[in-house]
Amino acid sequence: MEQLTQSLKNGEMQLLEVPYPALSKGCVLVRNHYSLISAGTEGKTVKDARLGYLGKARARKEEVKKVIEAAKTFGLLNTYKMVMNKLDAPAALGYCCAGEVIAVSSDVKDFRVGDFVACGGGTANHAEVVAVPVNLCVKFDETILPQYAAFTTLGAIAMQGIRQADLRLGENCVVIGLGLIGQLTVQILNAAGVKTIGIDVDPKMVLLASENGCMLALERSKDDLENQVLNFTDSYGTDAVIITAGTDSHDPIDLAGVLCRKKGKVVVVGAVPTGFKRPNYFKKELDLRMSSSYGPGRYDPEYEEEGIDYPYAYVRWTENRNMQSFVELLKNKKIHLEKLLTHVFDFRSAPDAYQMIVDKSEPFLGLVLKYDVKKEPKHTIHLHENKFKPGEVNAGLIGAGSFGQNFLLPAMKGLVNFVGVATARANNARNIGDKYGFNYCAGNADELFKDQNINTIFIATRHDSHAEYVLKAMQNGKHVFTEKPLCLHESELEKIRNEYATSGVRLMVGFNRRFAPLVSKIKSVFNSGPVAIHYRVNAGIIPPDHWVHDAKTGGGRIVGELCHFIDLCMYLANSRITGVSAYVMDDKAKLDDTLTVNIRFANGSVANVSYFSNGNKNLEKEYLEVFGNGMVARLEDFKMLTIFGKSENRQTAALDKGHKAEMEAFIRAVKSGEPTPVSFDDIVLSTLATFKVIESISQKGKEISVEL
Fold this sequence. Notes:
The chain has 708 residues and is of the alpha/beta class. The chain folds into 4 domains: 2-151 and 337-370, Alpha-Beta Complex (Quinone Oxidoreductase, Chain A, domain 1), CATH 3.90.180; 154-290, 3-Layer(aba) Sandwich (Rossmann fold), CATH 3.40.50.720; 385-510, Rossmann fold; 513-705, 2-Layer Sandwich (Dihydrodipicolinate Reductase, domain 2), CATH 3.30.360.10. A hairpin with a 5-residue loop joins strand 1 and strand 2.
């Protein structure tokens, strides 16, 4: 299938041949008939991408701050590579579309193949086929033209702004900014019986608003604007102002303060600065509100990705119900889009539409892309026809997010033959396929498991899918390397143990720290006798709504990351874990990501892992000390190692956490048929120990035995 993408590096746009997107749980697959271009949001994205590096930095100041912070952790060269990797990747465009359902996930009950739906959100792209979570799509029937249904997402944005204004029948409202969302806002207000006043700098938009039912439409430049609004509102001022403009000027927010009555409301929908002049807001005690996109549920992964709806009685209007409401208005002819839809472009001419937006070569408002629904899109994209010998490591890669692209793939390059890649996002799969020379890219991971040419599967997806993919790989007789964690639950671990016992394949988890050069040096120093280990991890804050904290998706940071440090302690102790105990710091968010863990080993060694998320990022992330035989080794962030013995020996090195050496060791094991460098028993023990840490916390620090 084809998808419209843009290079963030130089702004080049292309219709890229990509595989179908993955049909994940709680999603439907939709064959697009039309998609709407958001001229404001997408227009800015396109313009920014065409800027030089300095221009990009000025336009994206927050991203620049993140780059600076990354450089402190990973170094300038590695950070530069990561930035270039992101800029080179083709980025998807679009978030409003409408089409026909062609497939549904097995857990979806309310949609059927053949339903027509309007879709929104980050996966509702300009592409022939899209995969959309159920809470981000709504049905529409044959009474609504699909090109009009494609407006539904923007309609929901307008709807949410009105709900934030909390207006009643007969009240009045000023809409500042009469672009597409402003025009929709005026029509929805009219349908609700609210008296509308529209203001814009463009006389054409003012005239259009008037033609679409705006009771008082004014140019911003009119000298008597304030008096006209005052007269229209019987000298009280307007009950509410909804700002749908997009500008760097403070004028909209200041004008809202002038026009609003005492105790009135100002709602910001558009992208405007809010550094307003204080007097009007202070004297009138105005209520300034922000409107969050389509409505409640937006940016909530449980709502959008997992399909968990908010209770109707407590959250009457969610983003999905706002979308439904807009569709109802379309169906009942309360919204008229004939004058708002100014351009229809064939999908293959999409770059021309964006060029018109950038150049402003002619007047435009609503622009939609029309798809050729008679064309049969390709499910899988074949890129090369390389032939590989069965005795070599012929790889299939599932998932390629930030970690996979920046660490895993560079480590694999030159060691394996790249056969097939499958990722959830179609444009990402194509990008990885092109960049690393895979034979093909797919949206469905099952294609890799079925491929007889692939003998080794590499997994770099979100944590909740690891166990499923590991099991499928073994069941299909393929060696498997998965990023940590191996799984999220003991029941999954037991299934993996049972399958592994009869599979005859090589399995390894990405416990890369074992293979770091400076860790190897420590290991050589402490080659006998028990040791005492202190490991302090300045883990840093991850926002509470991040997927890692989600029990279903990420499993939490103990399972998802602490396993790394537990495994390294076991490696340095050179003995199996026999027991763990843990205490967690009490915090309101209940994230359990600031804790101390004590570990006992069969040979008498002990370890303490202090995993703290409440520190400061200016301190190094990892600090490791190993005591034994009258010697101490101190490792600081994998950059400096000091050995204290008869004399002090200090060694510095470039940051290297062992990713390349780990991959080389795994590949050697697969080729030779020898055991993997991290034994299966060690993998099980490290994984099991993390589960026992959680159990110990629930039992207020009681030591829990760890047994195979």
